[in-house]
Amino acid sequence: MIQNSEILQVEDLCAGQLVELKFSQTNLISREISTQVSKNHSNLVLCPLLGDPQINGGLGYSFGQPGTDPQPWKSLATHLLKKGIGWFLPTLITDSISNLERAFGQLESIRQEDQFLKTVCPGYHLEGPWISPEDGYRGAHQKSFVITPKWEDFESLQSSSGGNIRLVTIAPEIPGGISMIRRLVAAGVRVSLGHSQASSEQIRQAVDAGATLSTHLGNGIAKTISRHENPLWPQLAHPGLIPSIIPDGHHLPLDFVQTVIASKGLSKVIVTADSSPIAGLPSGIYPLWNTEVVMTPEGRVTIPGSGLLAGSGVFTDDCLRWMIDKGGMKLESALPLCGHQAAKALDITTINMETSKSFVLLKRNTKLSWDVKRVVFAKKVFWDNWEV
């Protein structure tokens, strides 16, 4: 806790330079570039806040069934910000159009009344209901709600969201899929391919229509596929698609993660936690999405008896740690995958991305590769976990 004032010299990891930070009890007063080590030098590192384009909920709160009480959403957003996650897209998955309308309407009503939520949640991600109805490719999405796209359905959902659906995941091979992609892109919405068994030609058509991303590549796909004719290779090969991946230790093996990065390059990969509404809760059995899911002690979220994963049990910072601890990446290389590149791909700009105003301070030489000691948000000391 800062008593009166405090001056810290830290390393700005991304800029590769020393900066001197002056704090009052509650605010960042100034930030100046340092040319040499000073008496205020610390073992802290300054890093940008993380971001995630796909968070289904957490701590028992589901964006698909938000209700009208703002507190669970604010509690989740606060929990994430303390972990260094400064922005995310609340994600709604396949459901009836009427249920999705209701959920978007409830969320937007809450969001418009709360500046903090407006800042940390710059829009929404709609994953489905325009996906493959086939087992395996559909994943944990309920088949009864999978439908073919109609533009009037999207218009209704977008109206309920206040015009803030920024990202839509769709399977391009379904009837009307390509034309829907074209209309979404024309309306300023980013389109991602996912839960799809599209052919190479259908994927090329989708990119020609304006699709630019792939949702959690390597997941949302059948366990048994043709070794050559499958949706993975053309999405890896196409230079126009930026894939997201879920490196939580359960969704993907290390060699697949390394293959995606080697194929696309570090600047063309996005990390998402795809956090389940039960992420962050203790192990156990929980009701979710009209069924029951199991959270194992290791953080794996599954639908019993199906072998299907139902989102992840962790958040974006845990995925970053996995990339470093298991993937062997350096922090400065892994960081852009965990927010910056997603924001760039989605054209998201908020105050939480400006490291002159919002950042985390990490402590060096600890057992944790992402050991957050202080969070500064819009020039205010949001959270402090390090006694100077």
Structure described in brief:
The protein has 388 residues and is an alpha/beta fold.
Features:
388 residues, alpha/beta, 8-stranded parallel sheet, 7-stranded mixed sheet
Description:
This protein has 388 residues and is an alpha/beta fold. Helices cover 26% and strands 26% of the residues. It is built from eleven helices and 21 strands. The chain has helices at 71-82, 97-112, 115-120, 151-160, 177-186, 200-209, 232-237, 254-264, 316-325, 331-334, 340-346, and strands at 6-12, 17-23, 28-34, 41-47, 50-55, 57-58, 61-62, 85-93, 124-127, 165-170, 190-193, 213-214, 242-245, 270-271, 284-288, 291-295, 301-303, 308-309, 359-363, 372-377, 380-384. The strands form four sheets. An eight-stranded parallel beta sheet has the order 5-8-9-10-11-12-13-14. The longest helix has 16 residues, at 97-112. The chain is globular. The mean pLDDT is 95.
End-to-end Cα distance? 8 Å
What is the count of β-strands?
A: 21
Specify the biggest β-sheet: 8 strands, parallel
Strand fraction equals: 25-35%
Unreliable sequence segments = none
In one word, what is the shape?
globular
What is the average per-residue confidence, as pLDDT, rounded to a whole number?
Answer: 95
- Helicity, as a percent range: 25-40%
Oligomer: single chain
Rg for CA atoms: 21 Å
Structural class: alpha/beta
Q: Identify the strand order in the major beta sheet.
A: 5-8-9-10-11-12-13-14
The helix tally amounts to 11
